[in-house]
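[job 0412] stage=complex_fold ligand=MTE status=START
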Amino acid sequence: MLIKKPGELQTADVTPQEIYLQRRDFMRAGSALAAGLLLPGMAQATTRLTGMVKSRYSTSEEETPYKDVTTYNNYYEFGTDKSDPAENAHTLRTRPWTVSVEGAVKRPRVWDIDALLKAFPVEERIYRLRCVEGWSMVIPWEGFPLASLIRQVEPTGNARYVEFTTLHDPAQMPGQRSGVLDWPYTEGLRLDEAMHPLTILAVGLYGQTLPSQNGAPIRVVVPWKYGFKSAKSIVRIRFVEQQPKTAWGRAAPSEYGFYSNVNPQVDHPRWSQARERRIGEFFKRKTEMFNGYGDQVAQLYQGMDLRKNF
Ligand SMILES: Nc1nc2c(c(=O)[nH]1)N[C@H]1C(S)=C(S)[C@@H](COP(=O)(O)O)O[C@H]1N2
Ligand SMILES: [Mo]
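[job 0412] stage=complex_fold status=DONE, emitting structure tokens
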């Protein structure tokens, strides 16, 4: 258990603003501890992230409790029940870890995760996450714009899409010994979606590095799309000319289209997408177009038929 107590805070080199943010993080992590969530079996090697500012892209809605964010997960590499990832993901080894940024770029680069963490300033982004299954959460992520990393590698004219690939190692990921999906998990975005300032690479949540069940050490978060677009524990980011195949698209193409924009008017073939349950709430709420991020992203889809391109 690596969560430090407030007394251990190093305040010498931080500004008052940073101290305020650190205290707040402690209070939040503290309430997670007080609720008895971090039982020995589920202890995660999370460490505190410091010096963060809250991004102006944050929603001001109430945050989903830490307990729910870290025990109600979809991460099929560790089982298909919501509680499986929190129980099983301790077998994931997140060091050493590299992320290969490759394909149609002028400067491909294999990043060591710790170098990556140092290279890009991390801020806090409170985002809604809407799962295609009909539930949602509000999660305070720590991350940086994917665009910052993309600019560094200088995509060529052939780079029209970006493909993300999760680690493939059945020894660490027991779910990969089953055929529930075609492994490794892959996802993709159009280059302009990937460059959009709302799209982040998340390395933490609630002021701590990511728990394994949430996709440690690094995962994508695309808040206006269904949660499955946000691939976890990424080892490769590849720039390609053709629209990449995605794990869920391969499994059920008529149910999980490439765009996967949250669109309450387009039903999943087996259920409605008009309403959602915010985890922790009793009554369902109306689902918003683009998960409520329409002002920022609707222009990306101008002229497209979003029923055909679902
Ligand atoms: N590699 C991988 N990434 C994944 C998944 C998965 O099963 N494997 N599940 C997706 C789905 S369906 C959702 S809703 C989100 C859940 O993220 P969270 O558990 O951090 O809330 O992760 C997405 N990323
Ligand atoms: Mo999901």
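The first helix runs from residue 16 to 34.
[job 0412] exit 0
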